[in-house]
């Protein structure tokens, strides 16, 4: 299979994934190429697969430049950077990495809730700066028993619900249609959900419909004691609205793993003690990234050996 | 009954409880008793007690004000000690038992908040939440690239040291994350199905994480020592929401600095508020200023319990949360 060209559109920063791909295919690292248009023109015949991630995928423009593209294998579960309609039209297969990262992302969501409500990062800084010698840190907010509202009740949403349940948190949710076999309380709109929870978590896929699903109206409904947790995608939230709500005290706090324009984080947030800011680490554990890489490689191998794909979406 | 001009019985307070500072004194007041505040007097303690406290029957204790045998000797009329702290290590329990002095603790008022802190610290250490929040705030994400990979919590073996109210709440929460729970306690608990290890060393050898949830007593002082830390190993993580002296702190710091233990989440220390400076340069350690119970909800709840216990005592009714060592 060494002659099969695989184009990696995401930064080649994960050695294991790069090595495993290079063992089996001819790997082209798109980000390192200066004249990308020229490269695609001269290599388009060879490139039969694309490997992307949450930040870099395969848009219509790229797909149009690759006549022999057969499969896009994403090192992520979210596929908002892959033009799925275009892939369907061209009969290009698309795979992602579901299930293997569900637990890590859900763990991080709860970790963010605890870190924000209990001010874990702030009080760690308080100790390290020597301030504890001068007095106790101030009161924080209890997490157990707080109502959690989940936008999207897929694998990740359900895993968050299960964990929050162990803290006796009542669970409310919003999905496009009510789920029949679920014991949690359904709300038919995100605004109503936000008005009826203390902590609102974004756990749905990013699509045209869900862009800015957390907007000014939702933020107002969540209110000055409410907390927003985003482990989905930056564009789920109207970021300028979020920043001004936090700066003005109209929103109680936020735990954010994703931003509209990563790796840029609005600097007005740096001065706030009621926010926790993470560099998109939802699936960022040694164990999970390896499992994700194995799925990416496994899907590509299966495809080129004419076997059933492991985790196809298209 | 010890009375003042208002005719109310008195409750001795050696120091201003942290709770009074954090939520105010008002939630702790009652029209059935009043506080006799040692800390507002210029007199030395002994003299104050001999002059003003000879008929006082009740003490409200908090962590920083020990109730020792020497102090109790100066208080012939004391019949109850009510505490605002989860721990009882600052109270001379054998002396209370000998004198027939009842002790009222905080029951399970704080258990959820303390368990939440334990889980929060563990997730923070394993997933490097505080470290990566710092990375973002220092603008390193845009200049240095992605943060290094952290460690998965799911599937890890967690050893709970002390399976009381707090230990059980910790275990229940971590089970939902897919952790495998085992424990050590003075005796095995018949009502749980978690595997029991008769000594902490064996527990540590078979776990990836140790969470310290037990009380500080003579038996548990430096329970977590060089041997236990070595058994826990270089990939092991320790979380302490009990009391600092349960761990041999110097040894733990040495292990952390040398990479012989993978990380630690600590709310308590041997000599608060002093924290070993060597820990400040480690990003695999999360430090908390002994505040596991300092939420508004817990302190209001404990104020109701404290007032309830004291009112019950003064009306000759049973205490709401009498401590009985079983």
From TrEMBL, chain A:
Q: Which PROSITE patterns match?
A: D_2_HYDROXYACID_DH_1 (PS00065)
Q: What class of enzyme is it?
A: oxidoreductase
The residues the entry assigns to the signal sequence are: none
InterPro entries per record: D-isomer_2-hydroxyacid_DH (IPR050223), D-isomer_2_OHA_DH_cat_dom (IPR006139), D-isomer_DH_CS1 (IPR029752), D-isomer_DH_NAD-bd (IPR006140), NAD(P)-bd_dom_sf (IPR036291)
Drop me one GO molecular function for this one. NAD binding
Its Gene Ontology cellular component terms are: cytosol
* Family the entry assigns: Belongs to the D-isomer specific 2-hydroxyacid dehydrogenase family.
The identity of this protein, by name, is glyoxylate reductase (NADP(+))
UniProtKB/TrEMBL annotation, chain B:
Class of enzymatic activity (EC top level): oxidoreductase
- Family assignment from sequence similarity: Belongs to the D-isomer specific 2-hydroxyacid dehydrogenase family.
- Claim: NADP is one of the keywords in the record: yes
Query: One Pfam family for this entry, by name?
Result: 2-Hacid_dh_C
Q: Which GO terms describe its biological process?
A: photorespiration
Native source organism of the sequence:
Rhizophora mucronata
The record's listing under InterPro entries reads:
D-isomer_2-hydroxyacid_DH, D-isomer_2_OHA_DH_cat_dom, D-isomer_DH_NAD-bd, NAD(P)-bd_dom_sf
Which stretches make up the D-isomer specific 2-hydroxyacid dehydrogenase NAD-binding domain? 119-292
Q: What is this protein called?
A: glyoxylate reductase (NADP(+))
Coiled coil regions in record: none
């Amino acid at each position: 299979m060494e002659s099969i060209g695989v184009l990696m559109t995401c930064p080649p920063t994960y050695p294991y994934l790069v090595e495993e791909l290079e063992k089996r295919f001819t790997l082209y690292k798109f980000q390192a190429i200066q004249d990308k248009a020229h490269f695609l023109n001269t290599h388009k015949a060879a490139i039969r697969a694309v490997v992307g991630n949450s930040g870099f995928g395969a848009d219509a423009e790229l797909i149009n430049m690759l006549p022999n593209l057969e499969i896009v294998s994403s090192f992520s579960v979210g596929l908002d950077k892959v033009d799925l309609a275009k892939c369907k039209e061209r009969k290009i297969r698309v795979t992602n990495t579901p299930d293997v990262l569900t637990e890590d992302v859900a763990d991080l969501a709860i970790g963010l809730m605890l870190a924000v409500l209990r001010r874990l990062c702030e009080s760690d800084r308080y100790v390290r700066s020597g301030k504890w010698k001068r007095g106790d840190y101030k009161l924080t907010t209890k997490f157990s028993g707080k109502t959690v509202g989940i936008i999207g009740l897929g694998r990740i949403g359900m895993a968050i619900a299960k964990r929050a349940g162990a803290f006796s948190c009542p669970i409310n949710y919003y999905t496009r249609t009510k789920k029949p076999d679920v014991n949690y309380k359904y709300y038919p709109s995100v605004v109503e959900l936000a008005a009826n929870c203390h902590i609102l978590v974004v756990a749905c896929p990013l699509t045209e419909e869900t862009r800015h699903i957390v907007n000014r109206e939702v933020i107002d409904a969540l209110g000055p004691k409410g907390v927003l947790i985003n482990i989905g995608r930056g564009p789920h939230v109207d970021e300028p609205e979020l920043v001004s709500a936090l700066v003005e005290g109209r929103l109680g706090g936020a735990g954010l793993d994703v931003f509209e324009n990563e790796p840029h984080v609005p600097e007005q947030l740096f001065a706030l003690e009621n926010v926790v800011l993470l560099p998109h680490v939802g699936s960022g554990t040694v164990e999970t990234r390896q499992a994700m890489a194995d799925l990416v490689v496994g899907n590509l191998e299966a495809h080129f050996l004419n076997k059933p794909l492991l985790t196809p979406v298209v | 009954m010890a009375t003042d001009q208002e005719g109310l019985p008195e409750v001795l307070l050696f120091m201003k409880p942290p709770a009074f500072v954090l939520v105010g004194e008002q939630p702790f007041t009652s029209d059935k008793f009043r506080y006799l505040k040692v800390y507002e007097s210029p007199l030395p303690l002994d003299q104050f007690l001999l002059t003003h406290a000879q008929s006082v029957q009740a003490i409200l204790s908090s962590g920083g004000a020990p109730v020792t045998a020497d102090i109790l000797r100066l208080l012939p009329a004391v019949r109850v000690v009510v505490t605002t702290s989860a721990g009882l290590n600052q109270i001379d329990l054998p002396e209370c038992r000998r004198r027939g002095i009842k002790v009222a603790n905080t029951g399970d008022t704080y258990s959820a908040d303390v368990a939440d802190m334990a889980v929060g610290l563990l997730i923070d250490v394993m997933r490097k939440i505080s470290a990566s929040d710092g990375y973002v705030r220092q603008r390193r994400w845009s200049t240095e690239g992605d943060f290094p990979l952290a460690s998965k919590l799911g599937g890890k073996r967690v050893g709970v040291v002390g399976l009381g109210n707090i230990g059980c709440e910790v275990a229940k929460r971590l089970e939902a994350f897919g952790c495998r729970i085992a424990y050590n306690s003075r005796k095995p608990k018949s009502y749980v199905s978690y595997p029991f290890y008769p000594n902490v060393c064996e527990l540590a050898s078979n776990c990836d994480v140790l969470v310290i949830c037990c009380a500080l007593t003579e038996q548990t002082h430096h329970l977590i020592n060089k041997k236990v830390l070595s058994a826990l190993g270089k990939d092991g993580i320790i979380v302490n929401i009990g009391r600092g002296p349960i761990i041999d702190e110097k040894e733990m710091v040495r292990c952390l600095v040398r990479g012989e233990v993978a990380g630690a989440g600590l709310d308590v220390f041997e000599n608060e508020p002093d924290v070993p400076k060597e820990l400040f340069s480690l990003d695999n350690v999360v430090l908390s200023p002994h505040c596991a119970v300092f939420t508004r909800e817990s302190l209001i709840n404990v104020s109701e319990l404290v007032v309830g216990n004291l009112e019950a005592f003064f009306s000759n009714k049973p205490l709401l949360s009498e401590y009985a060592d079983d």
